[in-house]
Structures are given as C-alpha cells and as structure tokens.
Amino acid sequence: MEKYILEAAQVRPSSRQLAWQKTEFYAFVHFSPNTFTNLEWGLGNEDPGIFNPTELDARQWVEACKLAGMRGLILTCKHHDGFCLWPSKLTDHSVKRSPWKDGRGDVVREVSDACREGGIQFGVYLSPWDRHENTYGDSPAYNRYFIGQLKELLTDYGPIFSVWFDGACGEGPNGKRQVYDWDAYYETIRELQPDACISVCGPDARWCGNEAGHCRTSEWSVVPETLLDMEKIQEKSQKVDDGEFSRRMTSSDEDLGSREAIRNAGKLAWYPAEVNTSIRPGWFYHAQEDNCVRPLDELLHIYYSSVGGNATFLLNIPPDRRGLFHENDVARLREIGEHFHAAFKEDLARDAEAFASESLDETHSPGNLLNQGKYTFWRPKDGTEAAEIIIRFGSVRSFDRVVLQEHIASSGQRIELFTLEYEEAGCWRPFYHGTVVGYKKICLFDTKRSGAIRLKIEQSRWYPTISHIGVY
To answer: The sheet that has 162-165: what strands, in order across it?
Structure first.
C-alpha cells in the first residue's frame, strides 16, 4: 500500500467536528433591518427605529425547526449593515436604539434561551464586513472592535455549537480595505467556546462551494490541507450572483479527496463540508416571496444529497416583519418532518442477522452494525481493502433506502467504492453503486423486495469500517 493512502486513512475528526456533523440538519435565521427595508444587503445607514418586530417569538422559530427534524439554529447576530441584534456595549447601532421593547430587548438572548428550552443547539453568525462601523478599513482598530463583539456573544449567551463566518469584505469609509485577523478571531473562539465549530471561513467546516444547494457526488472529509488557505476561502465565499455560483462548481472543484486528488497533496486535514441554502429565493424576508417557498421535493433532494452524502445541511428560514416564521415556511418545515417520520419509521435491519466475509475479532463483529452503538463497529483485518456484508431479514421485505455509516470517530473516512445487491432466486442482483460513505450515506432507489441485501465494499483505504447499516 502506498504511504499516502495509509496516512489518509488515519486522518480523523476533532471532537468538535464530530459533534457538529451529528447535528446534521439545522437552521440559518437571517434577521436584521433588511427585513424591514426589503433589502438583501443593508447599507449601514439604516435608522435603528425601523427595527420593530412587535410579535417576535423565538420559541415559534425553535418549534418550527423541530417540526422539520432540525437540531440547531444559527442566528445572524450582525449582518453586513453592522446592526447588532444584541445591546452591544461597543456600538449604538443595535436593538437598544430601536423601538422594539423600548430599546430594552435582546434578540440573541431570546433565541439562545428558546434554543436551550427547546433542546436544540444555538450558534452565531457575525459578519466581519461592517458597513456602519467607522473603524472598518483601519485594520488594527476594527479587528479589536470585532474581537470585542465576539467576546460579547461568546461569553453572555451560553454554549455555542457553531460560529459561522463568511468572507464578505468591502471598502471602509476611509477608502481602505479591511484585513481580517483570522488567527486572532480563532484564538478568541477557542478560548471562550472551545467546543464551537468555526464554519466556512474557518478551520473546522468548509463551504460546499455554492448557495444553491448543489452537492458533490463524492464529498470527502479528508482533503489537502491547502484547502484551509484563508485567503482562498475568503475569495470563494464572497456572495455573488447565481450564475457565478454555478460556474464555481467546475470539474476541478468536483474532486477534492480521491486518490488522484491527494496523491501529491502533502499534508491532509479533516475538513468536512456544509451545504447552505435558503427556503426562499432571498436570505431575508420579502413579502413578495411568500408564495415562492421551495417545493418539498427540492428541499428533500438537497437533504438527501447533503446529509445523505457526508455533509451537513444549513437551511435558512427568514422571520417576517412580525418576528415570526411565515405560515408558508412553517407548513413546508412540517412537511419535511412528516416525510422523515414516514420514511425512517421502521429499520428493517434492526431485527435482522448480519454476516461478514471477514472480521478482525469478536469485538468488531458484523452484529455491531445493527445496534447503532456509540463506540461499536465492524472492521476486517489490516490490509483488507475489499469485503462483503450480508443482512438477512428473516422474511421478504420491501425497502427503498439504505443508510450506511462509517466509524469516523476513531477510523476516519475510508470507503471509496461500494455496491448494494439484493437476493432474488438465489442470485445477487446489483441495484445501487456508490463511492464515499463517511459520516452518513443515504442510498435512495426504486423499491426492492427481498429477504436479504449484500454490501460489497470494493475499494477502501487500508481497511473499511462500518458502524451502522439501516434498511427502510
């Protein structure tokens, strides 16, 4: 075996990356003066007096997210206009100058409390670009200001599961372009919220490359460390028109982690992908888009391609001017949850029997695949890169999806090529071909009827691992 393959097989996620990946599906909430000006990018000169969500109910947001099966919520605490949804001590351009709750309100507090009460995780988005702050463009001064805002958010609102940065960077009022001190930002986050995943313009999770919900066919978490180059990340994360989004996903960007991509890459890193898009055409609420909520089939396609393709799914739901998720958005979130409840109601593999062509020992037997244990998994001997697993149901059953999970916590990402087969009249008939598995692979196909399925792992790195197989 070539040395670089052995090295790739031993790259593992950090505890914070693993916890973030298990969140799987979570909400982005874009809310700011843009909600009241009907803009997507504010100018920074908006009167705080326009911000007055008289019916704001963060508990309604959280309950709507839970209807869809979401496990977290990331709030845009400050967007590019510089308006702070908390009463920051560092600027007057915030809720304390708004008529909402007579200037005594704190949106961040209400949302963080609602998340904890509702049992989902809370995260923050803080735009580095600030079109209101006068020190923006005076790089040292603004970086101190920005770190001060980070400290407020990371010390006053409980545990934070994600700190989400984009790379938007404009010209300051002094005509100078701001140079962000990313290292200092990261140091502040690690000190105050060591379990928080720093996403997109950060070292823990990367952007999939577009805001349209497009996903790669093979999404590797083990990639060349050069992908963590902040200058390139910032350049790619600038928000642009949809035509540019589609151009970004070029063939050269499609393959980030195959053997060919990492052969001469040098050092490798665990850098998993997040897919983000909005439930509406815009990221902020616009009344004219009330009947433009994305169809259920489209959102499910993104979910199965992202969460079901070794990434996570961050779906934006923008509150309206009342401070509520609009009824049409809530209805769609409910439909998503109803679909999941029906699709994954019964795991046919739970009471089945599992057999493997080879196992390392009894501790790593194929029986581990069926119990969803936190630490248990199946694996063959070192150097066995191809193996087979058979699941027998005990009777003929109908199914249209299979869920596969590798034991990434201790073994990283290894499977490169696999085939699923079902048994018919004593013969094995292939019905699904896949590449990577990673944290989770959801295989969708036309309904099959059989008493058994076989997973053929045809290529892997050093040896494969599987922690769970589900059949639905």
So the answer is: 197-200, 162-165, 121-126, 72-78, 25-29, 311-316, 273-278, 206-207
Distance, in Å, from the CA atom of 154 to the CA atom of 181, rounded to the nearest integer, reads 18
Helix axes 58-67, 107-118, angle to 10 degrees: 40
Burial of 425 (0-12, 13-18, 19+ CB in 10 A): exposed
| Poorest-pLDDT segment among 223-227, 322-326, 327-331, 438-442 | 223-227
Q: What count of Cα atoms within 13 Å lies in the side-chain half-sphere of residue 457?
A: 28
> Strands 468-471 and 415-424, how do they pair?
unpaired
Query: Does the reported pTM lie above 0.85?
Result: yes
Q: Summarize the confidence of residues 428-433 as an average pLDDT.
A: 98
Domains, the chain, in order of start with CATH, read: 3-343 (3.20.20.80), 353-471 (2.60.120.260)
pLDDT tens, position by position, 274-331 = 999 999 999 999 999 999 999 999 999 999 999 999 999 999 999 999 999 999 999 9
CA angle 164, 268, 304 (to 5 degrees): 55
pLDDT of residue 250: 33
Bridge-based pairing state of the strands 72-78 and 121-126: parallel
Q: Which residue has the tokens 């180059």?
A: 229
Q: What is the pLDDT of residues 327-363, one digit of tens each?
A: 999 999 999 999 999 999 999 999 999 999 999 999 9
